């Protein structure tokens, strides 16, 4: 079937034919349809009953091409099936933090889901200096539940292996393999360097051996370590928040991969927000430090909260099921020691992935608004250099940075040290 | 279809109906059929033309149960499909070291393949003190080719990911997860301890934290690191040899797993042969040292030969394809450094897996003949304790044992040190 984007009227009529959605939205003739997609990939619509604005949904549709470019850049619509499957799975595990799916149509490659009308994108909130008191608790809960329940620590081996096969998502994984783990370290035409970024900083990404080796290790882990069902693109633009609630959206990159990749994405984006605060926080002569400290505190609370909840889920499940991953242990000393060891290894992975994610946001084609929005080229470049220095340290020292507090200390030191590389 | 093992006549008639096999074997009326399977799982037949004994094949058939126990222990016949797929794949990559498949029947769960009439099982040869001058070259070639060509270093990401899904073999993987990585470290009813094995050595497997943690790390890697298509059970009973040729047989445990698992199996079994030589080599008052040194030399040559060929395949492929796993590197210094780093990491994995494999052969239910054949309980226990000490060192020190020569030195030191734990 040739793909045609819906007109407003067609979409309203389509939704009127789906009983569950019609029950939610009311009469198709009353529906306002607004196309709001600003991403590169998909069409996104807000559909609202004009007579009862509380009755609304989001419709997301994946065309069989890269929307930004058009039909000349084909992209499999299968990505919508991955997104729907992941939304349902994560929603079952963590219903408070995942939008509800009302309807999915695998022939039309669309999903109808909960409209988060009173929430905003976390990245925007952080740029404005907003504080979300429940954010760290919510994200650590989301991460602990989604990462634990997809893994061999919970699932029976046959279920886990078939889940991993069903989640193969090579087309979107290939985008990450290229744009996160490969191109940023090359002299690649897709890279975009800001005007004042020193050549030495760019050269260092290409030539510093420990950094190249660490990045390649993370790429190998990304491609091979099928540990759990990941969101796969968990930056602060995939998180919607308000004072009371936190939702994780857009899991179209979902696949079975290394746990640290999702946690690392969150940490990377908090660190990008931290360093870019040196501009955002100074507007009107203010002092950025208080909000920067709040950002680091969130990073620390997210890791520590995630880690504590993950171990708690693990312990509970093993004491209920009487099966222990490492095997029986009469004294439970080895059991406890292994869990601590596992979390240290996971922190190292997390920091390595965070480093790669930060680097791609500085020199790769996909940027983050908190940095591109900085108008002064030199201020921007100084911030970018700090991000790169932090990213390099995370990658190269990932196994020796023993806890998340040390990462916060590292970030503060790099922030204080105004000398650039 | 209810499974019934073939009678000799039925099998001859069946083979006569397969044109390719009939062309090979000749008239069904001339065929001698001998059931020779001594394994726990399958039926194995030698089928030979009585008038022309050079015309012969092996037939292997997987009943839908554990043959050793019978229909009360069901086991999926799918394992034969995994074995056939792996034989074909490995045969294409390494035709000199994999028996030819003449015919496979997925309804009857059988395969007809090359009869290695002048070869013997390597484990038997090593017990007799035979030396195979080409063994190390052949095994390093087999390992380098099979492990490299299934990995992301060669395959396109979509092909690799679909190959990994197609190779899911959870039922046989579960056997390994339990028998190699879990039960040996527990007080498990399936374990079998030799009469004089000191209780302290058994306790140490259960309580020594660094050992338990290392074994759990290897289990996690086995279950999660889908690096390449493995043989999955590459001990010296899966290798057939003569002076000139080496064949790897029985890949029914094949799945996408960590490369070090196959290399580690070879090394573990050479080390078991090395330590057990202290009895086999002393029969009739002889000195075991010369043959023990030959065994260590094979271990060193297999690792070093494998490593050199693997890196060579990697380099050749990247220079032909112009695509480099770590990304472009103008100076190729990082490229070379990463390859060395990759092989050090692979050696660490290899030694960790070798350690687990050695331990399961000492205390688990599946033993090796070179040790069970030792009649003197105290001599046997001394050898077993050395095997366990070596295995523990391989596991716990796997990341610091920097090259295979250090492993040989370690083995010699443990052999010399007659004091037990």
UniProtKB/TrEMBL annotation, chains A, B:
Keywords in UniProt for this one? ATP-binding, Kinase, Nucleotide-binding, Transferase
Residues in domain Aminoglycoside phosphotransferase? 33-284
GO BP terms: namely:
methionine biosynthetic process
EC code = 2.7.1.100
Which Gene3D superfamilies does the UniProt entry name for this protein?
A: 3.90.1200.10, Phosphorylase Kinase, domain 1 (3.30.200.20)
Listed InterPro entries: Aminoglycoside_PTrfase, Kinase-like_dom_sf, Methylthioribose_kinase
Q: Belongs to which family?
A: Belongs to the methylthioribose kinase family.
On assembly, the entry states: Homodimer.
Stated name of the protein: S-methyl-5-thioribose kinase
Specify the species: Caballeronia novacaledonica
């Amino acid at each position: 079937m040739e793909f045609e984007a819906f007109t407003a009227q067609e979409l309203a009529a389509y939704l009127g034919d789906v009983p569950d959605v019609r029950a939610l939205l009311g009469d198709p003739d009353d529906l306002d349809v607004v196309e709001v997609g600003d991403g590169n990939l998909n069409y996104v619509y807000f559909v609202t009953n004009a007579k009862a604005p509380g009755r609304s949904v989001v419709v997301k549709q994946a065309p069989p091409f890269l929307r930004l470019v058009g039909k000349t850049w084909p992209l499999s619509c299968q990505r919508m099936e991955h997104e729907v499957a992941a939304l349902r799975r994560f929603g079952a595990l963590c219903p408070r933090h995942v939008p509800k799916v009302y309807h999915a149509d695998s022939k039309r490659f669309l999903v109808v889901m909960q409209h988060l009308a009173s929430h905003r994108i976390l990245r925007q909130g952080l740029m404005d200096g907003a504080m979300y008191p429940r954010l760290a608790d919510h994200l650590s809960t989301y991460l602990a539940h989604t990462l634990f329940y997809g893994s061999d620590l919970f699932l029976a081996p046959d279920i886990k292996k078939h889940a991993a096969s069903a989640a193969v998502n090579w087309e979107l994984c290939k985008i990450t393999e290229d744009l996160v783990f490969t191109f940023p370290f090359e002299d690649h035409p897709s890279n975009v360097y800001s005007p004042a970024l020193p050549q030495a900083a760019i050269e260092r990404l290409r030539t510093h051996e420990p950094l190249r080796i660490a990045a390649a290790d993370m790429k190998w882990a990304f491609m091979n370590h099928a540990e759990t069902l990941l969101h796969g693109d968990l930056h602060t633009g995939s998180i919607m928040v308000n004072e009371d609630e936190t939702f994780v959206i857009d899991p179209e990159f979902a696949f079975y991969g290394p746990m640290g990749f999702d946690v690392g994405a969150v940490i990377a984006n908090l660190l990008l927000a931290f360093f870019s605060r040196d501009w955002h926080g100074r507007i009107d002569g203010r002092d950025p430090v208080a909000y920067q400290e709040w950002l680091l505190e969130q990073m620390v609370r997210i890791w520590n909260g995630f880690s504590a909840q993950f171990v708690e889920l693990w312990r509970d499940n093993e004491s209920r099921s009487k099966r222990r991953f490492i095997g029986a242990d009469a004294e439970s000393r080895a059991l406890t020691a292994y869990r601590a060891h596992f979390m240290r290894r996971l922190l190292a992975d997390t920091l390595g992935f965070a480093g790669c994610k930060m680097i791609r946001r500085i020199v790769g084609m996909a940027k983050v608004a908190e940095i591109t929005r900085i108008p002064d080229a030199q201020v921007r470049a100084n911030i970018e250099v700090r991000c790169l220095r932090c990213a390099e340290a995370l990658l190269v020292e990932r196994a020796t940075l023993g806890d998340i507090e040390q990462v916060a200390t590292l970030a503060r030191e790099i922030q204080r040290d105004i000398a650039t590389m």
